[in-house]
Design goal:
Strand order of the largest sheet: 1-2-6-9-12-15-18-21-24-27-32-35
Structural class: mainly beta
Protein name: Pel9A-like right handed beta-helix region domain-containing protein
InterPro entries: Pectin_lyas_fold (IPR012334), Pectin_lyase_fold/virulence (IPR011050), Pel9A-like_beta_helix (IPR053868), Polysaccharide_Lyase_9 (IPR052052)
Largest sheet: 12 strands, parallel
Helix content: under 10%
Number of domains: 1
GO cellular component, one term: extracellular region
CATH architecture: 3 Solenoid
Cofactor: Ca(2+)
CATH class: Mainly Beta
CATH topology: Pectate Lyase C-like
Number of helices: 2
Oligomer: single chain
Subcellular location: Secreted
Length: 413
């Protein structure tokens, strides 16, 4: 009997412990919650679909990791500055990890218009704060970010970790996407265009995409008509990947490269400079270089199956520096280029590469030549056409090879 009673007590104890544990878990987080914001919402509301909040700030305050904040369509123009320091006004300051911010309907994507924000300091319209991870932002437009007399402003300043999906930054006086310091993440099917700074002040600091942090992946992104570079890796300490991305018409007054992959300028490079990946990308009609190694102190990238057209200072420029400790410029000796196409400009410059590093490109593959007849179209403006219904790159004929071209198998199409 004693053993039987003891066994019953043990069972009851286990049940009590299990129940207590379940209650604790339930109290902590029973399930992921959904919240909503609307241009007609109120931050005194409950935040549900029928009574949405008015601001991301309020939604973030009540949300927890794993939750989703749905953003209703319309234009958001009323903002309070969430935080300031000596240099920046941070308008929408993301300080919690693990939250998703998503358009309620991808057919009615919301717009955030920051044109009324003061320029007493640099503006960071959205900031992903240092140490914040696993944030996702999907399906929004950002416009009107001002710069005033500041050196630069940013639509997205990423110091933490974020995935940006189908996000567009357009018609700003600010960088579109700016990963800096410890910033990491992914830009997928994002666009950055008509972002132009002030002449003599910020024009040369206004890129479409800036990868200056610890490593970013860009896939199926586009940049056009920005006043500095389409994509810029200056001072990056991490490895960046550019896959099926486009750059067009950087001619507004800054450096004007399509893809500027590398370099540290006056900054101190890491002991071993990162090596980036540039593949299946298209760069056309830019005021400087199409693809540029930009004084990298070592190998800048592996460049594979890219297409460059009519870039003013050269389609592929592989300029390097001797090492991280010797800033002397040299024609690149370490770059790797395979299966690329160049047309309408200098194919390859500032390169002193071993033969095995440069194979099967349009300018050195045996038995091929490049003429206008190889391509279905030379109308680069097609690169700015609207995206498909799921955010896919538009269906274009520009630089697509004709079926009888001897270049088939090369380039990005």
């Amino acid at each position: 009997m004693g053993k039987f009673i003891k066994k019953i007590c043990l069972c009851i104890g286990a049940v009590v412990i299990g129940l207590a544990s379940a209650l604790t878990m339930a109290a902590t987080k029973a399930y992921a919650a959904d919240y909503y914001i609307s241009t007609t919402g109120n931050d005194s509301n409950s935040g549900n679909l029928k009574a949405p909040f008015a601001s991301i700030a309020k939604a973030q305050a009540v949300a927890s990791s794993g939750d989703t904040v749905y953003i209703m369509g319309g234009t958001y123009k009323k903002f309070n500055i969430a935080k300031s320091d000596n240099v920046y006004n941070y308008v929408v300051d993301i300080t919690k990890s693990g939250i998703t911010y998503e358009a309620y309907s991808m057919s009615d994507m919301p717009t955030f218009d920051f044109s009324n924000i003061t320029t007493s300091k640099r503006v960071a319209a959205f900031r992903i704060a240092r140490g914040v991870t696993d944030v996702t932002i999907t399906g929004i437009n950002v416009t009107g970010v001002p710069v005033g007399t500041q050196k630069q402003s940013e639509c997205f300043r990423v110091e933490g970790n974020v995935t940006l999906n189908r996000v567009t930054c357009h018609d700003n006086a600010a960088n579109g996407f700016y990963f800096v310091n410890h910033g990491t993440g992914t830009c997928y099917r994002c666009d950055s265009y008509n972002n132009i700074g002030v002449k003599g002040i910020s024009m040369g600091n206004t890129d479409g995409f800036g990868a200056h942090g610890e490593g970013v992946t860009f896939k199926e992104c586009r940049a056009w008509n920005c006043s500095d570079d389409g994509y810029d890796c200056l001072t990056s300490t991490g490895t960046n990947t550019f896959d099926t991305c486009w750059a067009y018409n950087m001619n507004a007054g800054g450096d004007s490269n399509g893809f500027k992959i590398g370099g540290y300028a006056m900054g101190t490079p890491p002991a071993v400079a990162p090596v980036h990946t540039v593949k299946n990308c298209l760069s056309a009609s830019n005021g400087a270089h199409g693809f540029y190694a930009n004084h990298q102190p070592g190998k800048s990238a592996t460049w594979t199956n890219n297409t460059a057209y009519n870039n003013k200072f050269g389609n592929f420029d592989m300029l390097e520096r001797v090492s991280t400790s010797d800033a002397t410029d040299i024609p690149g000796t370490r770059e790797v280029l395979h299966n690329n196409i160049s047309f309408g400009g200098v194919a390859l410059k500032d390169a002193n590469l071993p033969n095995e590093n440069v194979t099967d490109n349009s300018w050195n593959k045996s038995g091929v030549s490049v003429t206008a007849d190889d391509f279905q179209s030379l109308d680069a403006s097609q690169m700015t056409r609207p995206r498909g219904k799921d955010g896919e790159l538009p269906d274009i004929t520009f630089m697509h090879l004709n079926s009888n071209s001897d270049l088939n198998g090369l380039g990005c199409f």
